[in-house]
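Please, structure for the following, as tokens.
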Amino acid sequence: MVLLRRMLGEALRRRRQDQHRTLREVSSAARVSLGYLSEIERGQKEASSELLAAICAALGVRLADLLREVSDDLELAEFAAGGSARVGGPMAGMAPMAAMAARGGGTSTAVVERAA
């Protein structure tokens, strides 16, 4: 099973690191504790929509863009886990790695867990 909180955390961490910013800088700008932001980035805590919006604002990223990125990553992870690709959308019909390259991203480190 793909965990959405982990994928959101990974996307937030990528954005923060791409900007060469520290957890301390972003947590201060978003008005969230450093420890809590770290737990969100590691996929250990679920962030509310209000908190996600605050973190995105601190990063200068539109929430819609972050969610679109996570949606694309989720599709690739589900495909890799043996799920089927969706019929429509901008990445439809593309091989997973081609879709990732088209999005401009590298390989995802998304954690794919299967239910026991």
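The first helix runs from residue 4 to 18. Helices lie at 4-18, 23-30, 34-41, 49-59, 63-80, 96-103.
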